[in-house]
Write the structure tokens for this entry.
Amino acid sequence: MPGPRRLEEIARAALGSYGVDEDAELVLLNISENATFRVGHRVSGMDARSNAAAADYAVLRIHRPGYHSRVAIESELAWQAALRDDAVVRTAAVLPALDGERVVEASHPDGEVRHAVMFEWLPGSEPAEATLVEDFAELGAIAARMHRHARAWERPAWFSRLTWDYEGSIGDGGHWGRWQDGLGVGPAESEQLGRLDKRLRERLANFGTGADRFGLIHADMRLANLIVDGPAVSVIDFDDCGFGWYLYDLGSSLSFIEHHPQVPEMIDSWVRGYRSEAPLSAEEEAELETFVLLRRLLLVAWIGSHSDTDLAQDMGEEFTRVSCDLAEGYLARFS
């Protein structure tokens, strides 16, 4: 993965498309699939072009090459805008470039070209860990509203996003690589996680992909992707949105904390929140743990294929060891 300095050079090259000086403040916030920067923008006319409230900052996302096409990025932004315009949930407005485009190209001096998108800066902060259980009720309600919208929304004919079915998640064609290549996956771990993989595949096949269960989802609804500002809650980072099981959004909400002792309470809270906005059958509720483990195994693959990121290094081989423990518990309950 390119280093921060190279990514900043590409980000600075993108600023001119927005009328922002190349020497503007640029602070790296995160490197994951993409690189995200805080920009001190305050550019004449930008707020008018975006209809966003005036702010001292904006967010610039530099896309990883080879993950999403321009059409796929435009598709993400289309759903995000529809959710906001239809008052389903607050999302960050896109700040268009000087020519009105929502997606621009930025070039490194050596010729590498990447897509870039600029968003409004949303005030607030990530939910505190002390309120995890309560926050999951809000997450469930938000997920239900988004799923209801996805079922009814008439997508543009050109709409194109990844599919997070079994094959696209943990199969041989997984978008984030193979869990078998995860950190610390030796013979014993491969055997344990292989049994989990087989059981997940069977249960997912039985659960099915009917339109009532499988559709357009956020696919990364972690608390880190919520911004809380008083009573207002915003959802950010739709970069992984695509077609998958609606219940997968619960699994993604528990990313990296699947072993937390309060997970059963969090799930109960999520279910209550979901049912406050949309139906959730007893059969679906009984299958929620399958989607928690599907996400966990997918994250083993992600850590292996993104081992040079800070997050993957923080998780390390311990993530795989704990995943094996979770797998054994799941297999005991769903044998």
